[in-house]
């Protein structure tokens, strides 16, 4: 059994550890988070900062549902958390998983309110330019119609083959992230 900064939670005791984790989840969900004063009797400031950061990461990661309760509890115990505290923490994260998941989806959606309404594409063959006499390079002309707050906005792009590959790769990565958030 290894000991990580996550094991600092043991110094709070089972009841206080659960309370601290609930406050951390509140913070992730946009409400008041845990404060140092809540743990000042049990933890020094440096340990509190590390613990709060790790608990915030744990709360965010637990929302994706990749770990079942038993695996999460075993992982916490392997990190040096006492079994009774790990059980309480697992229960807290399990009970509040849907709330965390919804908040993380809201945070992701808040990045931009625009969405794709329509698109048009066309492949052109560039034969020459003012710099070069002969190029013979395909170019994708892409028009995106974005809808933002009921208004449409058009974005026009001309992409080379390499730029198109980078765009496709980034869109595939974004799609995978959206699929993970939905599951």
Separation of termini? Answer: 32 Å
Whole-angstrom Rg: 24 Å
- Tell me about the biggest sheet? 3 strands, antiparallel
What do the pLDDT scores average to?
85
**What structural class do you assign from the helix and strand content?**
alpha+beta
The beta-strand count equals 3
Written as H for each helix and E for each strand, in order along the chain, the element string is HHHHHEEEH
Looking across the biggest beta sheet, what order are the strands in?
1-2-3
- Taking pLDDT < 50 over at least 5 consecutive residues as the criterion, the unreliable ranges are none
Helix count from the secondary structure assignment: 6
Please estimate the helix content: 40-55%
Strand content is: 15-25%
The rough form would be described as elongated
Q: Key terms for this structure?
A:
183 residues; elongated; alpha+beta
Describe the structure.
With 183 residues, the chain is α+β, with helices and mostly antiparallel strands. It is 50% helix and 18% strand. It is built from 6 helices and 3 strands. The protein has helices at 14-28, 45-62, 69-78, 83-95, 97-109, 161-182; strands at 115-126, 137-148, 151-159. It has a 3-stranded antiparallel sheet with strand order 1-2-3. The longest helix is centred in the last third of the chain and has 22 residues, at 161-182. The model has no long low-confidence stretch (mean pLDDT 85).
